[in-house]
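One-letter codes give the sequence; the fold follows as tokens. An example follows:
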Amino acid sequence: MEVYHCTGENQLNIMSKPKMLLFCGWGWAASSPLIYTLQRNLNYAHFGYTKYFKILSRPIWKEGELGYKHDRGTNKIYDLYVKGEYENYKSYQPATHRMNLRVDLQPLDDFPLDHFTKIVTGDLSISKYMDFWHALHDHVITKGYKCVGDGYMGRPIRKQYYLAGLRNYYESVIQYTNTLKSEFDVKVLCIARDPVRRAFSHYVHTCSKTNNGQNTTNKRRIRKNKPAIINLPIDLVINDYVHEINLIRKYIGDNVYCTVMEELWEGDGVTELSEFLEHPIKKSDLWKNLYAPDKGHLVEYDKDVPCQAYGQDLLELTPEIYWHYKNKFNHVYEKWKETFGSLPLHWGEPIEYKV
């Protein structure tokens, strides 16, 4: 796997800056287990109050300038935290990936609440967000962490091509990334999974949340407690990983690494990830991952990774479905091979799921 590093004069310029790990995971590719690994097991990066801290998620134009609307979810977290009700709030529900266990919040017990208060009150701005991360960084390094981590803002960067026609999103990405690079030594970590299997996991999760199991797009009833037999086509959103990685490099720079879920948990991917992070990682450090080895519709709920099993038992990813979408989106696989030399472990062919 190729790792993009910045060198020379740029490296000298960032030596004195605080460190930020910008996480750009794709959903249903074990992004939660990887962040749990980094924060809980390795004490490498602390991501603040939750995995997706959506402070800058709603950019708007206000009086000719870029601004942001407050995110209700973040405000709710703040309200719960102030009341002392945030710890373990819904943390074991099947669909959640909140990071609000004692192990997550204990390092923040003596972090002044004023920093959180400032970003949920008054006008939002990128500079106010930077102030928060600077304060959090200076705090968590006293707890043994190497850096802070932003688990949300990587998403709008890599999705920029979807939003190219929306000026507020485009300007937000430009201003955010320019400010971030000027104030932090940024590493960008991505995690990918076989494109079809990742998209299928996303699809069945969406089915499980829509009208009590009915997918309104396909008008298909999903039966409970038994995998449904489906006819093609279904609506899968296949990510072009290489295209999106290149977008991240365009806005952030070359210090970008994409690990592969299958290689990390089942292959030797920990070696390259350790080298990129400049931090020792052993296989035993990895958080539990229900997608590796992949059990498909046979996966069982596990409270340690409650977000992963939700809805996955509703449909079976049959070889017919896999080959249909693998062939349809073969260019995504071919682009990966052209960029990195070969397909990762288990990519490009169906898995026979067994009890």
Q: What stands out?
A: The radius of gyration is 20 Å.
